[in-house]
What does this fold into?
Amino acid sequence: MSAGFLPERLQHRLRALVSPVSEFIHVSAIYLGLAVLTTLGLSLVLPSMRQQSQQLHEVVLAMFQADGAGGYGGTESDNWSPPTDLAEAPDVSAPVAAAPASASNSSATGSSTAGSSAAGTVAQATPPAAAQSAAPAASGAGAQQAPVRPPVAYNARLASASIDFFQALAASMRDQPIPGVTAGQAKGLRSYLSRKYRIASSVAGALARTTFAIGKEFNVDPQLLLAVIAIESRYNPFVESAVGAQGLMQIMGTVHRDKLRASGGPASIFNPVVNIRIGTQILADCIRRRGSIEGGLACYVGASGPSDGGYGASVLAERRRIALASGIPLGKR
It folds into this structure.
């Protein structure tokens, strides 16, 4: 009996020792696999995040740059540069004055996209007092005259696009009404956008105000624009796709270089007003050419055939959700 009893006790002890070891090996293998998957994921995500952070850094520098040293993200081939003296730069606090004829002519022929801003184009000019004080100095300079520089694309249009969004943001923070929208509808719209897309309520109100103004300008339903922004960028103004589309409505800067140049340079693609206006013009043209909202959305996403991969259905479903949350009736186009 003792000979048969001892092997059974040893076998039981061996099982008691082997079981924790096997469990430890199993858990270690699981954690090792998670570490490998995490490393692979970070190796794929970090380069794109680094590139986006660099672009964001360049945009912020361009927005706060006071002179022409940086070029607002432009290149020499773009033939564009910001003003290099204070007399050329628009003064936000100065009273609005009529722009010179040469500036107005260059602005009128600059772009078919940024013709007027979301809250109305504002023409900034040098105050009369500054012009009068500068005249004697120019006449007394004699032969030492400053070289005449060609007119640059930066004028009231760039300042207007930037100032308008901040004006819309300030109006949103003061709960000023949006034309054609009741206070209850605006509140519902802001609440839906801010909760679903994790953006500030004031920013949601400013973007809604911008889309309603630009949508009226191009005769496009503002809630359709909000739905396109939701599907394209989820309200991230600095996002970039794998193919290079950028901003709220995912504009291809390489394709629409002329529109961006007239609106302030390549960096203006990250300006919400500029991006929404260019995207709205493209969408309106697509709807006009295809004859329907569904066809226009397929055209906007670049689908040449009958199928758009479900893009149009996603946009229209989000449009219905926005209308349901806000109580604003859907537009015809």
The chain has two domains: 1-58, 98-127+148-326. The chain is about 60% helix and 0% strand. The longest strand covers residues 245-246.
